[in-house]
């Protein structure tokens, strides 16, 4: 039995397929994710210019050696206070890393995520993506450059990347603002 599809139906199927494919690929890169969410409410987004990379090297000796090889560095922190939002963000990050990144570390605790993924080219790590979500806040830290795989693995195991995220916030003075009492005590 052969089913024939008339001409308008073919157009509808092709159009539906294109819409489905484009919606699936919306967040398939860090650039797309960063651009899509940097304007969201309560989001902290940092893209470090190359001339400021040396400042970040003061966080630790390991960071100094890592940052020296970095061409692009981004950090984003965003609210993730509902199950739906956390699930949505986790799915987006899974879509970004998909089959093009290698996971070197993953810890799942219900919807909580702590994932370190890399993209390699020959004997060098070219991209590092660290994603964390604790059901209150999510964040990612992204590096693009030339990195030693052994050093990346060691830093992931020692949680050095989390320290860098905290250091970025401190460098940009984006931490919590002092309370009125603290401000009065300094005057």
Notes on the protein architecture:
- By secondary structure, this protein is α+β, with helices and mostly antiparallel strands.
- It is built from 8 helices and 6 strands; from the N terminus they run H-H-E-H-H-E-H-E-E-E-E-H-H-H.
- It has one domain.
- 43% of the residues lie in helices and 29% in strands.
- Strands 1-2-6-5-4-3 form a 6-stranded antiparallel beta sheet, with helices on both faces.
- The radius of gyration is 20 Å and the shape is globular.
- Rg calculated over all Cα atoms: 20 Å
Specify the number of helices.
8
N→C terminal distance: 86 Å
The SSE string, one letter per element, is: HHEHHEHEEEEHHH
Please indicate the count of domains.
Answer: 1
Q: Provide the spatial order of strands within the biggest beta sheet.
A: 1-2-6-5-4-3
State the helical fraction: 40-55%
Mean pLDDT: 75
Number of extended strands? 6
The largest sheet is: 6 strands, antiparallel
Shape: globular
**Uncertain regions: pLDDT < 50 for 5+ in a row?**
14-27, 174-187
The proportion of strand residues reads 25-35%
Structural class by sheet pairing and helices: alpha+beta
């Amino acid at each position: 039995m052969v089913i024939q599809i008339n001409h308008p139906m073919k157009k509808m199927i092709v159009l539906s397929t294109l819409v489905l494919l484009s919606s699936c690929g919306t967040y398939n890169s860090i650039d797309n994710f960063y651009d899509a969410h940097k304007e969201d409410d309560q989001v902290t987004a940092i893209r470090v210019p190359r001339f400021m990379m040396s400042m970040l090297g003061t966080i630790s000796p390991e960071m100094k050696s890592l940052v020296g090889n970095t061409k692009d560095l981004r950090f984003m922190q965003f609210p993730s206070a509902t199950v739906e939002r956390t699930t949505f963000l986790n799915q987006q990050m899974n879509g970004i890393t998909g089959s093009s990144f290698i996971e070197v570390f993953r810890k799942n605790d219900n919807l909580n995520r702590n994932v370190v993924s890399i993209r390699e080219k020959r004997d060098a790590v070219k991209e590092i993506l660290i994603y964390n979500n604790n059901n209150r806040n999510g964040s990612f830290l992204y590096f693009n450059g030339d990195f030693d795989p052994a050093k990346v693995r060691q830093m992931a195991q020692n949680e050095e990347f989390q320290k860098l995220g905290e250091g970025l916030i401190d460098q940009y003075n984006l931490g919590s603002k002092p309370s009125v009492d603290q401000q009065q005590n300094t005057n």
